[in-house]
# Entry
Amino acid sequence: QVQVMESGGGLVQPGGSLNLSCVVSENIFRFYHMAWYRQRPGKERELLASIPRIGAKHSVEGRFTVSRDIDKNTIHLHMTNLKPEDTAVYFCNAEEIGRDYWGQGTQVTVSS
# Structure
């Protein structure tokens, strides 16, 4: 059973930065695609950034940067200039052929 675990959420002031981590229990190259999503209150889950096994990584905004640490089976999401509307639960997703895996999420609250 693949396990996915996010960490690094918390309370941050507007304009601040935060780095989220996602650890998976398998070698991350098992998955052809990994990504970060978020779900804001009352909204649908939305894609923020993705990093494929091969090819270029992608993010929906320049404030979000995804990276990976192969040795630690981890991907990160570095977020800058955070805004109150970034308040959400942030999820990590790992995809392999025929199946994908989700973590439980980590709460990020942007407030003064």
Summary: The first strand starts at residue 4 and ends at 7. The mean pLDDT is 96. The two ends are 40 Å apart (CA to CA). Residues 74 and 89 are 18 Å apart (CA to CA).
